[in-house]
Design brief:
The chain has 319 residues and is α/β, with parallel strands linked by helices. The chain is 44% helix and 17% strand. The protein has helices at 14-25, 39-43, 55-64, 78-83, 85-106, 139-158, 184-195, 213-225, 246-254, 268-276, 284-290, 298-313, and strands at 4-7, 30-34, 47-49, 69-72, 109-115, 126-128, 162-167, 169-171, 197-200, 208-212, 237-238, 242-244, 261-264, 280-281. The strands form four sheets. The protein has a seven-stranded parallel beta sheet with strand order 3-2-1-4-5-7-11, with helices on both faces. A three-stranded mixed beta sheet has the order 8-10-12. Helix 2 (39-43) links the parallel strand 2 and strand 3. The radius of gyration is 19 Å and the shape is globular. The protein binds 2-amino-3-ketobutyric acid. 2-amino-3-ketobutyric acid binds next to strand 8.
Length: 319
Amino acid sequence: MKRILIIGAGGQIGSELTLHLRKIYGDANVVATDVRESQALAESGPFETLDALNPAAMASVVERHRIDSIFNLVALLSAVGERNPQLAWNVNIGALMNSLEVARQYNCALFTPSSIGAFGNNAPKYKTPQDTIMQPSTIYGVCKVTGELLGNYYAHKYGLDTRSIRFPGIISNMTLPGGGTTDYAVEIYYEALKNKHYTCAIPKDVYMDMIYMPDVLKACVDLMEADPSKLVHRNSFNIASMSFTPEIIAAEIRKHIPDFTLDYNVDPVKEEIARGWPDMLDDSCAREEWGWNPEWNLSRMTEDMLSVLSQRLGVAKTE
Ligand code: AKB
């Protein structure tokens, strides 16, 4: 049975991944940590406050709980990172370096998310290959490429079991994102239900890859359970499940809320970031090497998002 540590468990992926892993591996075997207290995570299993920038504190949690697998989920996202690049570097790379070093000292497997943001303007936009030029223009992307290289370096130099996925924009009916360029694709559902109107910061014609949270959770478990002898790549795998523009997601929402309207107040920082990212990744290596096969598409996700959120918000889906 695995003994798992989640660092940054209170964030967008962590708050759902912790509960998912506890269901699979047992509540007591998944230790959640975050710099902030979390009553929700403490209710179903072990929880400790942990500053991921403190390597001694991280090592102490790993030793006390006899951890063998670490999920490092600490990151400032793309749009917020551009407001304070020095802080984004210190937090994103600081937490990663500490995780790599602690994983090396205690011989743990390590999962770290990468992102579509690891690519820049000069990578092919459509069906962006697994292995291609990576020259991002955001500090978030620079951190992600650095993280991928460090993961491969520790695997090669020390034999560490490091694995990673380049996540698209994540859409969840439970947790809100914070500070990303793809956040609009979550906000639009809330605003459609509450106000039947949304003002979008991303231009109408920009395609970006997106993924529904249940597929994110499945991907994390499937990659970490994959037979290492089948992995040609490690850090990091392209995955894809849906790609759309603001106009396309709005049209899908209108199938359920016909009077939903959309207008634009484009944020120049987010526009530049979004236009520099791929339209759609080629995920054939993930499919071949560890059986990646997404279960959700835009129409099924929209139906599910609107049905779960309408109940939670206490508003009807249709007029
Ligand atoms: C962001 O928009 O910064 C993230 C990402 C795609 O990595 N959601």
